[in-house]
Amino acid sequence: MWPPSKMFVYLWPGTSHRSMDWLQSIFSEHSAVQAVVVISLIAAVGLALGKVRIFGITLGVTFIFFVGILLGHWGLSIDPQMLAYAESFGLVMFVYALGLQVGPGFFSSFRAGGIRLLGLALIVVLLGTVMTIVFSKTTGVSLPDMVGILCGATTNTPALGAAQQTLIQMNLDSASPALGCAVAYPLGVVGVILAIIVMRKLFVKPSDFANPADEHRNQAFIAGFQVTNPAIFGKSIREIAHCTDHKFVISRLWRDGKVCIPTSEKTLCENDRLLVITSEHDVETLTVIFGAQEAKDWNKEDIDWNAIDSQLISQRIVVTRPEINGKKLSSLRLRNHYGINISRVYRSGVQLLATPNLTLQMGDRLTVVGEAAAIQNVEKILGNAVKSLKEPNLIAVFTGLLLGLAVGAIPLALPGISTPVKLGLAGGPIIVGILIGTFGPRFHMITYTTLSANLMLRGLGLSIYLACLGLEAGVHFFETVMRPEGLLWLTLGFSITFVPVMIVALLALKVFRIDFGSIAGILCGSMANPMALTYANDTIPGDNPAVSYATVYPVCMFLRVILAQVILLFFL
User: Fold this and answer.
1) How far apart are CA 424 and CA 426, in angstroms?
2) Range of 343's domain?
3) Cα–Cα distance between 77 and 71 in angstroms, integer?
4) Residues 55-76 pLDDT 10s
5) Which residues contact residue 552 at a Cβ distance below 8 angstroms, ignoring those fewer than 6 apart?
């Protein structure tokens, strides 16, 4: 096998060594430039290969890891200090951006609707953790190697970073978990997909799939009503709202041929026509309250809201003023001051009901109904400077990284452990990212980043981290796989992947009667496996796989990062 410098010269036969000295130095002589070139080469080749689908499956960005292993095996290397810096920086940037993304949904996953899904996902996590400890005790595989196998089997590179940081704190070799992760990773991706296929072929019936029409029942729904219930004649909208737990917003009221924006003090009369924004499952109850529902479908995408009447217009306004960030909708008193109504709020692709207690965030898109002059005034209040949202808010990014590293360095004393626990480079930033993403707007902290900006931070950080990780693991990878214990590692890793997800899938299907789409999302989210989620989304109709994935993923990702450290500290 050629060393790297000879290999690249061979690509241009007939070229003299002297004329190619500059190329050799770029790849073989350790320097800052050489480190950037090598990492960029590994990332570029890995991302290109990651787009290739084999039997409908792609490893995506993870292919960078295996390209790094191959080039590391061929002898390509960078300065050890540069390798440690780039690997740490990539990991920190990735987990912090990940925390920012999952933060808004992290605590909401503990609500009643997601508790059952989350409980099943946690069983997957705990089963894999127990199997890791048991396998280490019974097979003779060292615990650091077994933790690496666990990280590969669960396709969880942040947990691998946390485990490596823990080993460094304990003054132990931190390279061995990367080998175990590399060996188990491919079957970790395939194992979840295989479990979904086996479940569908052997256990799932057509009735186990959710009705796609039911998936959007909790989103904002528009309905027309006519007031025919004598019990609410002469009562104000505030009084009616206090008599029911069901949330609704009256966007327009027609009376005697005239339309208006009703305030909470507006009293309803017989034969008033109302345009109401609510949840679909509340429509039946509101029909009883108001009297009669109109037959017209107000949820079609092609409705021209400005053509409904000549007096009012509908316009979408984006929150871009920092002063509005973190304020409750009711505190702005826009309806009373300007005679407008906010009917819906779009946030991160989700349509929310504009209730008075809704906390506004930068980037929210508000559907405002009212007269043209009033809407212009509201536009000044909210900002609507869309261009300003495209400018990256780097202060929040660097502040979050700083706080995350500080939190990760705090020593935490736990009973029974002589060495204080530190969250490290992986745990600290992801916790701070989650907290800032969740609570930042309440303290008027501007945490908004566009989805593309967040994906760029995550992708760049993960690519750098995987390139360095593969380069480091590649030195001893193939000799490890070719040893007799290499097959054992593969078997143990596949068992950790396949057994827990099959047990939980059968439990969810047969005992809890959860639809198969949601089950697939639970399996993918609990194993932090976006590649398997892509397969599930392509083969299972509806949005349930993605919804349940988003419900369980934040907690499971966070828990695996912590457990990777706890296993080493308690059992090593």
Assistant:
1) 6
2) 216-388
3) 8
4) 666 667 778 878 888 888 888 8
5) 109, 114, 117, 118, 120, 121, 521, 522, 525, 526
